[in-house]
Amino acid sequence: MFSIVNILGIDYGERYIGLAVKTDEGIFPLDPIDSKTANRIEVLRKVVDDYNISKIVIGIPLGNEEGEKNVKNFSNLLKRELNIDCVMYDESMTSAFSEEKIKLYSSNSKNIKTKVHSISAYLILKSFLNLE
Questions:
Q1: Alpha-carbon radius of gyration of the chain
Q2: What CATH number does the domain containing 55 carry?
Q3: β-pair partners for 22
Q4: pLDDT digits (tens, 9 = 90+) for 88-120
Q5: Other CB atoms closer than 10 Å to residue 125's CB: what's the count?
Q6: Are 21 and 36 in contact (CB under 8 A)?
Q7: Where are the beta strands (DSSP E) in 1-132?
Q8: Which of 20, 25, 86, 125 is the most exposed place for a label (fewest CB within 10 A)?
Q9: Residue 1, burial from CB neighbour count under 10 angstroms (0-12, 13-18, 19+)
Q10: Has residue 85 been placed in a domain?
Q11: CA nearest 56: which of 16, 7, 18?
Q12: Superkingdom of the source (predicted)?
């Protein structure tokens, strides 16, 4: 029998962590994590459990040394804390593209900053799956 692998896409930011999930129902963004108000590891643990996630794809900003270092550290933290396979994938242009698209559909600029990360996570995951 064919088994669907559920995957979590992450757009990592110091303040907001964008999330998107791929299940047998498709790919869809989730609410981002606000690191100032939530325990990011506990939220991610719940998402992994709730959606039966077996792999995480994290966007990495290639060419940005500090950003790369932060993502690698976060990826190692997830591997250690959640005991899950983590793959890094080039996130070039996803945040800028996401922000541009959200501005077209949202009249509330306050929501743009938080939504952009989950839309970016969606794009990272979708791009990764197209190459897989």
A1: 14
A2: 3.30.420.140
A3: 7, 27
A4: 998 876 655 555 555 544 555 555 566 778 888
A5: 26
A6: no
A7: 6-11, 16-23, 26-34, 53-60, 85-90
A8: 25
A9: exposed
A10: yes
A11: 7
A12: Bacteria
